[in-house]
């Protein structure tokens, strides 16, 4: 292994929300591949089941309980405040570490001062290594054309190792974002002057098990994208080369379908 992380300079952090199977698989991969890294889990589930899963998997973790459905931005800030190591490994509960080499590869550039955030790739996605700019009321992402082993960028995946103090100083996450916290986080990081990099060859398994309440949850959280854009005076968000555009739309209530004749 090229880098050693077992001497108190890295903490793994994750927020859990109504996907117990996902969390269990993530914990198993951490136990197998990174057993010496301290773990913080924020439990925003309705039944507060996280402690039970941690114990069943034979692990130790600091479990924080802010209450039900506080939102991902709030929860990420909560674990950011609780981290007491120079760096942290940012995870989603639907990630699975595939081997023991991936975390040290992300850790090394941050530890050496080459960047403040070093991200890998999600297994079911193409490499996300973009820069962004604002133009005519739009947030526009521009993919980096030549991706090297370590490539500077503005926006990348949410699977990363970061410098704890610098992310705190930048303001962390938007606590109002109950979902869609990703791009706002990286915009805040760029404005604060943080150096973000994408590292090729660090791919985490993306175990996309849906939330228990399924489409209703995801639809509600996507609307937060629109709220964030509107709050910042933006009309649209798009990625160059991708046809689909995300725009602020007026949403009118759809008329209810009439039931069968005679039904009240």
Name given to the CATH architecture: Alpha-Beta Complex
Provide the low-confidence segments as ranges: 247-256, 260-264
Relative helix content: 25-40%
Distance between the termini: 69 Å
Average pLDDT, all residues: 86
How many whole angstroms does the radius of gyration measure?
A: 19 Å
How many strand units?
Answer: 13
Major sheet: size, sense and barrel closure?
9 strands, mixed
What's the arrangement of secondary structure elements?
Elements: E1 10-16, H1 20-33, E2 39-43, H2 50-56, E3 62-64, H3 72-82, E4 87-90, E5 95-96, H4 102-111, E6 117-122, E7 130-135, E8 138-143, E9 150-153, E10 160-163, H5 164-170, H6 182-191, E11 196-206, H7 215-231, E12 236-239, E13 246-247
Structural write-up:
The strands form two sheets. Strands 1, 2, 3, 4, 5, 6, 9, 10 and 11 form a nine-stranded mixed beta sheet that branches. A four-stranded mixed beta sheet has the order 7-8-12-13, with no helix packed on it. The termini are far apart. The longest helix is centred in the last third of the chain and has 17 residues. The protein is of the alpha/beta class and 264 residues long. The protein is built from seven helices and 13 strands. The radius of gyration is 19 Å and the shape is globular. The protein has one domain: Spore Coat Polysaccharide Biosynthesis Protein SpsA, Chain A (Alpha-Beta Complex). 29% of the residues lie in helices and 24% in strands.
């Amino acid at each position: 292994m090229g880098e050693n992380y077992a001497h108190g300079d890295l903490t793994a952090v994750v927020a859990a929300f109504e996907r117990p199977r996902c969390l269990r698989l993530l914990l198993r991969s951490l136990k197998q591949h990174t057993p010496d890294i301290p773990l913080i889990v924020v439990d925003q589930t309705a039944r507060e089941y996280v402690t039970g899963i941690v114990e069943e998997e034979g692990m130790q973790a600091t479990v924080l309980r802010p209450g039900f459905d506080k939102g991902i931005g709030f929860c990420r800030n909560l674990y950011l405040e609780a981290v007491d190591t120079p760096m942290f490994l940012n995870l989603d509960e639907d990630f699975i570490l595939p081997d023991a080499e991936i975390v040290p590869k992300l850790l090394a550039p941050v530890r050496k001062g080459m960047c403040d955030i070093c991200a890998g790739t999600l297994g079911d996605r193409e490499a996300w290594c973009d820069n962004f700019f604002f133009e005519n009321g739009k947030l526009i992402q521009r993919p980096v054309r030549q991706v090297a082993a370590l490539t500077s960028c503005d926006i990348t995946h949410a699977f990363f190792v970061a410098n704890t103090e610098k992310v705190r100083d930048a303001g962390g996450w938007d606590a109002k974002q109950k979902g869609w916290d990703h791009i706002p986080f990286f915009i805040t990081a760029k404005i604060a002057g943080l150096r973000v990099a994408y590292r090729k060859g660090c791919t985490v398994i993306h175990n996309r098990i849906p939330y228990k309440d399924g489409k209703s949850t995801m639809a509600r959280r996507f609307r937060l994208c629109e709220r964030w854009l509107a709050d910042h005076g933006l009309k649209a968000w798009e990625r160059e080369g991708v046809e689909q555009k995300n725009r602020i739309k007026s949403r009118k209530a759809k008329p209810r379908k009439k039931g069968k004749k005679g039904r009240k």
